[in-house]
Amino acid sequence: MPRTEELLVADHAIDKKVSQETWDQIVRELTDHLSRGERGKGLTAAIESCGKLLAKNFPPGSEDLNELPNHLIVRDVG
Q1: pTM of this prediction?
Q2: What is the pLDDT at residue 41?
């Protein structure tokens, strides 16, 4: 089984409003899905969870500037 590493990276404003425990739970759910071979389901669930957190803390239309690019990075690790 290939080695995997899952990370969620949040900018400073988001990090101030969302606890590490919350991020850890999202990563745990993702890794549970990945361990069962459910890559698509795991990524979808993680993205949906992050979206809900962002909508709650930073509603659409807020004027906060993005500090990080908004994209998913998937890469193989050796």
Answers
A1: 0.71
A2: 96
